[in-house]
Specification:
There is one protein chain. The chain is of the alpha+beta class and about 700 residues long. It has 4 domains: about 130 residues, Immunoglobulin-like, CATH 2.60.40.10; about 300 residues, Alpha-Beta Complex (Coagulation Factor XIII, Chain A, domain 2); about 110 residues, Immunoglobulins (Immunoglobulin-like, Sandwich); about 90 residues, Sandwich (Immunoglobulin-like), CATH 2.60.40.10. About 15% of the residues lie in helices and about 40% in strands. A hairpin with a 3-residue loop joins strand 32 and strand 33. Helix 3 crosses helix 5. The radius of gyration is 30 Å and the shape is elongated. The two termini are about 55 Å apart. About 5% of the residues have low confidence. Its EC number is 2.3.2.13. Belongs to the transglutaminase superfamily. Transglutaminase family. Keywords: Acyltransferase, Calcium, Metal-binding, Transferase. GO terms for molecular function: metal ion binding; protein-glutamine gamma-glutamyltransferase activity.
Length: about 700
Amino acid sequence: VFPESSLKVAGVDFLKSQNTREHHTDGYNIKNLVVRRGQPFQVQVSLNRELTAADKLSLRFGIGENPLKNRGSLLSLKPEREDFNGWKISIVKKNGKECLLSVTSSPNAPVGKYNLHVKTGTNIYKPENGVIYLLFNPWCEDDVVYMASEAQKKEYVLNDTGYIYVGSAYNIYNRPWNFGQFEEFVLDACMYLLDKSKLSLSDRRNPANVSRAMSALVNANDDNGVLLGNWSGNYISGTSPMDWIGSVTILQKYYKTKKPVRYGQCWVFAGVLNTVMRCLGVPSRCVSTFDSAHDTEENLRVDVYLNERGEKLNSLSFDSVWNFHVWNDVWMKRADLPEGFDGWQAIDSTPQEQSQGRFQCGPCPVKAVKEGDVYLPYDSKFVYAEVNADRVYWVVKKVNGKDKYLKVGTETQDIGKNISTKAVGQNRREDITREYKYPEGSKEERKSMERAYSFIRPSGLVPRSGYASTVQAFGGTVQPLVLKEPVTKSGLHLEITNTEPLHPGNPLEMAIKVKTSTPGNWTVEVTGSCQLQYYTGKVQANLGTIKETINLEGTSEMQIPLKIAPDAYMKTLSSVEDEVLILVTAIAEVKETNDKLTKETSMRFQYPPITVQMPETAQLYNDFPCAFIFKNKLNVILENCKLLVEGLGIFKMTTFEQGDIMPGRIMKSEIICTPTRLGEKKIVAKLISNQIKGISTEKAITITE
């Protein structure tokens, strides 16, 4: 009997459309097969003859430059044999020369790019497009990123559009953002970052290590990462952070040039990191915190210095309160921590402070922030301070030529407000403050704070006001924190509002409301100031101040108007490259009791809208028109207008130069769209000019067969 002719492979079919549908990876715009770990996928192998019992057939998966069996980077899988590193393969059916195989990777396999070769006897076959991309799998119960809810997976893994919440606690607004994790080259850019991270193979199994590495690589500090941060106000040598409307252009440009893209600020870093994590298969969301403390001392206190006119001074303080700060939460089980800290973990790629020698932050369990367990890795003290610090106000007075500091107020419930993310499956803001903090003043909050303070409080610092400090007595007992509401004798209370819409080119009309609520005659001296500031709290211009003394009796209130003429601020508004906010600070002093109170509120300018005109549905590959209309309802010329538009699966990022738009004039731009993907798609538009740094809008369209 002649020996069978040697077995050879004639071809391999990766059954891409079936596999990617089952693995929720059919969105990726890439030739190769993309699958998720811990879940079977099938490959069809065509042979030169029928497979017999004596034949040796194996699939070999190699990861990295030089795959080796003993390093675990080369997996040699034989059908029906016991598994290898948690992987297994079986023959589904044989049909003549065709052989259908099922491959199941381990639910904790390293993520990355695997090269597939088929070995038959001594022959090795290398298929075309034989690189398989393996991702984390939130659909697999044995994967640590498993997420039970379908609706949540649809939002946090598969949604390629969303919002990032910005503005100020006084008026929060949404900035539409295209994450675009399925666009061309985005997955390749993420794989490049994984290689660049130098994570070991076993570190690539763990989303905690991967997300920490990505938080470092999305900023350009220390490692030539994706984005260069810039808060200087000068962006001439790159793209202004306000001009991005999504992550796609940034990641594509980075992948092409391998050089940091200029420039980012916190929401851009968070938008890009969100794309990277969703792209790799880790559920992820952008989280915005309003009045976020950037505290360099880890002492849970931010000092704000005012001059005698009540204007905030930039120069004196290193710590600051940002009007908003955006980071990300990623979802995973934390096997490296004690029980109870699974779920959302905060990561932050905005370069603020080094952690273990690099600009990286997290993953920090959101639960650890809430419970005060700030000793847990990674960077939980830093995240805790961002949402829990106190704000202390000081007035700097000149006395005999020397600076004297007078404390004029403490806010204990001011930092870390309105923590926000996009709601699951809906286009609205969801407030998730309760996931980060217990209700202010509750018993649980006090317990959590005592716990945090036992790990943070440096010696010799003034305790958080309104509370007695936790002091280690000689007997070794810890005295509890006593909650003392700093109520003033006069029941003094301040509120700041705008009395007219804040349109650029109009006077800014605001009011300081002063209230007293206890019996007596009160003489209140009120100092108020109005400034323009960046979202990082840096003051850009002083616009005006008022000083008034009023008399209030018992329970009563009085409104003091504060009005700023357009000439006082329009020049600054058109000369800065960033969006600025209107900061109003009020100091009130009661003569009779010496009570002092300080309050500040940041407000944003209000702009006319852009409208989008297009059909509600369209058919795949059938052109449809889309028009953008904007009427300048302001009293000022909008100079150097640019309209930026992008629609994932519809058209690439496009910029229209619009020149100057006069008051009352209407701008109209039209674009012809060709949809290339099914389902609900969104078109995002943003208008930028010297006077206005970003009016955004979006509109959805359903694409059918």
